[in-house]
Write a structure and sequence with these properties.
- Keywords: ATP-binding, Ligase, Metal-binding, Nucleotide-binding, Queuosine biosynthesis, Zinc.
- By secondary structure, this protein is of the alpha/beta class.
- It has one domain: Rossmann fold, CATH 3.40.50.
- Helix content is about 45%, strand content about 15%.
- The protein has a six-stranded mixed sheet, with helices on both faces. Strands 6-7 form a two-stranded antiparallel sheet.
- α1 crosses α7 and α2 packs across α7.
- The longest helix has 23 residues.
Length: about 250
């Protein structure tokens, strides 16, 4: 798919998934803007990482630099104030009685998409890109394909618009996300993701691993590390399993 005359707004946290989605968008659309959110997250180091990743993409990827436009940062601290989760408070990460981990922040992705659509509406942008995934997620209901489809419908009805929400990672696992990054930006993008992006829930930037920086023990780090190992294994496997399909919610 190529949208040479279209623009997209990427929900960009500065993590592995959103950086891969940003690369996918830069390959797909003529102009790409980014949006991030300050919601009082414990791992708010990601807010410092975001501009560094964007700067490096502009500097090191000549084919994408001209396409990468304005970055938007939205303060929605009230979301963190309303929640009592491990993403916004200093509590141990654990499973809850409802079967969801306490890293689930109710309403987060719904608000993200709503604010992103409001910015996109003002900027004349029709395409929204989000790094949600139903394949190896933690059971978060706001990452499901059905949720994203419902949000797209609600946004279009409520804003009298024709937004299209793209979810390039929806049906692929973390190993395939690494493979997608390599296909899009070669070794340079894989190296950027390892060295600059941030995914660790604990905000740890002191411990370096082959797959990147992080505590190595939180669910986000464990998922990233497992995906990295499977990615390396698939590169050496002469008959790797088929990769998942990119999904567009239309």
């Amino acid at each position: 798919m190529r949208q040479d005359s279209e623009a997209a707004l990427v929900l960009f946290s500065g993590g592995q998934d959103s950086t891969t989605c940003l690369a996918w968008s830069l390959e797909t659309f003529a102009r790409v803007e980014t949006i991030g959110f300050d919601y009082g997250q414990r791992h708010r180091i990601e807010l410092d990482v975001r501009p560094r990743v964007l700067d490096q993409i502009r500097r090191d990827f000549a084919g994408w630099s001209a396409r990468l436009g304005e970055d938007h940062l939205v303060d929605i601290a009230v979301l963190g104030e309303l929640s009592e989760t491990a993403l916004t408070h200093s509590v141990e990460i654990a499973m809850q009685e409802n079967g969801l981990p306490n890293t689930f922040l109710p309403g987060r992705n719904l608000l993200f998409l709503t604010f992103a659509a409001a910015v996109a509406y003002r900027r004349g942008i029709r395409h929204l890109v989000a790094g949600v995934c139903e394949t190896d997620y933690s059971g978060y209901p706001d990452c499901r394909d059905d949720t994203i489809k419902a949000m797209q419908l609600a946004l279009n009805l409520g804003m009298e618009a024709r937004f299209v929400v793209h979810t390039p990672l929806m049906w692929i696992d973390k190993a395939q996300t690494w493979a997608l990054a390599e296909r899009l930006g070669k070794e340079a993008l894989v190296r950027l993701i390892c060295e600059e992006t941030h995914t660790c829930y604990n905000g740890d930037r002191e411990h370096a691993h082959a797959w990147g920086l992080g505590c190595g023990t939180c669910p986000a780090c464990e998922l990233r590390a497992q995906g990295w190992e499977h990615f390396l294994s698939s590169k050496s496997d002469p008959n790797p399993r088929p990769s998942g399909n990119l999904t567009v919610v239309a």
